[in-house]
Recover the amino acids of this structure.
């Protein structure tokens, strides 16, 4: 399991692995929004939580279709399916590797991008906390979508259509926690719901994804 | 340690290809599958490896006994030869990477990235992976594709050493590996009879 995690991290960091693509996308989005909306600080502060969360979500989506597709194409997935580690474990580890290379950098970069969007001061802690709790769910739900569409030609587009609706609860509660934090209201309830979504999807979806992979390998 | 298959039927893409396949493979034995293209050799091997369900029949084999090597080698282009093998050895909880590299004549290429290997060298690396799985039964689908004559002979000797160590090999190949002791099984007589769907529902299953 550790070997699979280190391999995936190494593949992501080496040339062509796509590490940093999501982060760069997130950065560009956060720069483009003030240019499009205008320099009005009050408007930016109002929309910043939503923009940051939508940006994180789309940045996560960018690298999802590679999660199983590359292993499927070069035959590694067949070999992993016959290896002694359970396919459920493979899914969980691959989702973890995706989070470490995509989700975690987003969490760390978000406060800097908050400045670009004039995010109010009290909201920064809630922004980092909500992304930290919510982005693992994005990776695990994405792993399920990637497993469903593995082996399909042009499966990435279909995967986006399947996965984005499943991201809605995470987006709603994540952005809600940040905007409550920005207004100085208690944000514990949306954060707890966000943590619940992450825990639930991390517990259940690896099994569903492994089953989808087995069907797609036939 | 033995593989016993009785009355196996398998399908590809919902179309039954083979039925009534029975075979037995003991430790130290090799079985070569023969048959024209499309007769179901790959389908049979994937079914035996557990990658797809059988339509019927039974497969009796100790758990975690098979190492499957299909048409694709499962190599990562940006990892070196040694890194690729170390990964598969770690997944299977085994050691012996230097021995596998030496056995498949890859010593000079150990630090080269897999993307810079020739097709035959990639194939040799894919076959070296079998040696670090520690599995008893090698299930090989056309293992000699893109290998030159010397490499085919080298792989033949590797398989023979595996058999001598109590292993077994089941392979589909059109080329003579020089394994004179291997039994041959022609799959042509096991071709599934075409049958029309019984009803409206079955046509969709």
């Amino acid at each position: 399991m550790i070997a699979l995690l280190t391999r995936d991290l190494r593949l992501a960091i080496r040339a062509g692995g796509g590490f940093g693509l999501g982060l760069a996308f997130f950065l560009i989005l956060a720069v483009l929004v003030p240019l499009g909306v205008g320099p009005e600080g009050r408007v930016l502060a109002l929309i910043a939580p939503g923009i940051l969360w939508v940006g994180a979500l789309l940045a996560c989506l960018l690298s999802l279709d590679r999660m199983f597709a590359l292993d499927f194409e070069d035959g590694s997935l067949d070999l992993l399916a016959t290896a002694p580690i359970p396919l459920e474990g493979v899914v969980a580890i691959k989702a973890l590797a995706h989070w470490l290379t995509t989700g975690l950098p987003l969490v760390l970069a978000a406060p800097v991008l908050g400045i670009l969007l004039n995010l109010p001061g009290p909201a920064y802690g809630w922004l980092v906390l909500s992304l930290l709790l919510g982005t693992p769910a994005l990776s695990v739900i994405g792993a399920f979508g990637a497993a469903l569409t593995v082996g399909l030609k042009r499966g990435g587009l279909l995967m986006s259509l399947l996965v984005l609706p499943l991201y809605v609860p995470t987006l709603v509660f994540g952005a809600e926690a940040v905007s409550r934090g920005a207004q100085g209201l208690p944000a514990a309830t949306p954060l707890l719901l966000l943590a619940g979504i992450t825990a639930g999807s991390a517990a259940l979806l690896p099994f569903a994804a492994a089953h989808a992979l087995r069907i797609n390998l036939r | 340690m033995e593989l016993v298959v009785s009355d196996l039927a398998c399908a590809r893409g919902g179309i039954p290809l083979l039925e009534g396949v029975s075979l037995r493979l003991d430790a130290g034995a090799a079985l070569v599958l023969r048959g024209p293209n499309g007769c179901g050799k790959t389908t049979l091997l994937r079914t035996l490896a557990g990658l797809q369900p059988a339509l019927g029949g039974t497969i009796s084999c100790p758990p975690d006994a098979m190492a499957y090597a299909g048409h694709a080698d499962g190599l990562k282009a940006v990892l070196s030869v040694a890194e690729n093998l170390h990964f598969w050895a770690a997944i299977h909880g085994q050691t012996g990477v230097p021995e596998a590299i030496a056995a498949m004549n890859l010593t000079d290429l150990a630090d080269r990235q897999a993307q810079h290997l020739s097709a035959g060298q990639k194939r040799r690396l894919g076959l070296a992976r079998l040696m670090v799985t520690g599995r008893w039964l090698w299930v090989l689908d056309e293992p000699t594709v893109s290998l030159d004559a010397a490499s085919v002979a080298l792989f033949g000797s590797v398989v023979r050493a595996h058999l001598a160590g109590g292993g077994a090999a089941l392979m589909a190949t059109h080329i003579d590996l020089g394994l004179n002791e291997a039994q041959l099984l022609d799959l042509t007589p096991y071709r599934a009879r075409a049958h029309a769907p019984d009803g409206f529902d079955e046509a969709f299953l």
